[in-house]
Amino acid sequence: MGDVPAFVRRHRFVRRGSVDAPPFVIDVKGGEAAEQRMAAERAAVLAILDEPGTARPLAAAARAWLDGDPDVTPLGAAGALTALSIRIHYPENSADILTPLADLWIARHGLLFAAQAAVEQALLGVQEGERVNPATYGDLSLAPVAFGEAAHRGPRGQILLRVRAALAVTTEDEYAEVVETLRPYRDRHWSAAVATSVLLPGERDWVEQDVRTVLANGSPKPELAALLLLAAGTAEQARALAPHLDNWWSLPMPGVLATLADGLGPGAAGAVLVWFDVPYMTAESQQRMLSVLTDMDDDAVFAELLARIDRKYVPAAVLEAAARFPARAMRMFAEAVRRCCAPTCSATSTSWTRSCPRSAPPPRNGCVPWLPPLPPSRTRRPQPSRRCWRAHRGFIAPSPRNRS
Q1: CA 114 to CA 107: how far, in whole Å?
Q2: Does the residue 207 lie in any domain?
Q3: Looking at per-residue confidence, does 137 or 301 come out higher?
Q4: How far apart are CA 25 and CA 211, in angstroms?
Q5: Nearest to 235 by CA among 199, 198, 196, 274
Q6: What is the mean pLDDT of residues 106-130?
Q7: Are 121 and 159 in contact (CB under 8 A)?
Q8: How far apart are alpha carbons 396 and 392 in whole angstroms?
Q9: Which residues of 133-150 are buried (b: 16+ CB within 10 A; e: fewer)?
Q10: Element spanning 11, H or E
């Protein structure tokens, strides 16, 4: 795509290989604020860890993290974060508050530790026991959950993507170490495999295997499809997952669109057009999709826009794309006219093919059929110059050199 468009640069979740990926900067203030929140909620977190439903090894590891034990494990860091997440309620956003803990993990324990903790926390959730009083929570405990079930909400998906941003700009040796360390997670459970693919989309074999597995098991939920789209590395993967993403109201549309465009370039157009053709898509969503399409430097994408020229918002998008890539636009405009009108459009033709736009009138006098007539105010004859007017009236003053 050449230079990264502003929309993509602003909303994308970078991966290793992203063009102009920004340097990773530790969010020190956010990490300190999250740690203070952990200290303030310590009693409630310990109550969750002490519940019988929480596995004892997990509870011990999480308690070690709370106590600042130097031998803390990634599982302990993940357990403490998951227990704290249930204590953050609307109007607060748990992802905004807890995602900086990933920065804290990286700063204190390194990127390898943070990558393992990110996968571990993606596989943990808080389960509720039977309620004695319908107005209050039942007993809360930590338990394994399937990744992808509303994982875009809360901190789980955001923490994976935050660590992914650090992996995008790390050294080759450190990246290779993370890949080898996370490889065993793929044998634990299919949801653990998906978490590793979201974290390391550069491992194309992992992503391809997970996409095939998820699609083979039936129609995936929109949340799981969105996560895999953030890892998609080919146009075929994005196109196969796109029809399953039909619930945009609760999903991060700008992030998904920008990340697809960042990772696939023009290859993302197939998935974007699937969503654009969904009936009753909101005006804002359509305009966002068109803004991504108009930035794609590809003949096929421009042809798809021309094929939808009768749709609302598309004409303006076509003009924007034409201004961005004028040589392509002029060539394809001419090709469209020839393809649509050459067989039938002549001064004596009375037939009309269905290849032309549905709203176009029959051709007349061999002109371009879909251009409407200009209004009267735009069709006035040009005013002649004073000399031309006098010549028309038949009295041109003689030239000075010919005067007697």
Answers
A1: 9
A2: no
A3: 301
A4: 32
A5: 274
A6: 92
A7: yes
A8: 9
A9: eeeeeeebbbeebebbee
A10: helix 6-11
**Domain enclosing residue 87, as ranges:** 17-200
Q: Is 402 within a domain?
A: no
- CA-nearest of 361, 239, 356, 272 to 307 is 356
Q: How confident is the model at residue 127 (pLDDT cuts 50, 70, 90)?
A: confident
At residue 2, the pLDDT reads 53
393 versus 288: the higher-pLDDT residue is 288
Q: Is 374 exposed, middle or buried (0-12, 13-18, 19+ CB in 10 A)?
A: exposed
- Under 8 Å CB-to-CB from 222, ≥6 apart: which residues? 244, 245, 246, 247, 250, 251
Q: What are phi and psi of 142, to 5 degrees?
A: -85, 140
Summarize pLDDT for 39-84 with one digit per residue, the tens. 999 999 999 999 999 999 999 999 999 999 988 999 999 999 999 9
Token digits of residue 9? 């640069």
Average pLDDT in the 118-147 region? 84
Helix axes 155-168, 111-122, angle to 10 degrees: 150
Q: Is residue 347 part of a domain?
A: no
**Domain tally, the chain:** 1
In tens, the pLDDT along 201-258 reads: 999 999 999 999 999 988 788 888 889 999 999 999 999 999 988 766 656 689 999 9
For residue 141, list its beta bridge partners. 127
Rounded to 5 degrees, φ, ψ at 353 are -90, 155
Assess if residue 97 is contained within a domain: yes
Q: Is the dihedral of CA 155, 158, 164, 168 positive or negative?
A: negative
| Core vs surface per residue 65-87: b (16+ CB within 10 A) or e | bbeeeeebbbbbbbbbbbbbbbb
- Going by DSSP bridges, is the β-strand pair 140-144/124-128 parallel, antiparallel, or unpaired? antiparallel
Q: Which residue has the tokens 């979201």?
A: 198
The encoded tokens of residue 252 equal: 């991060």
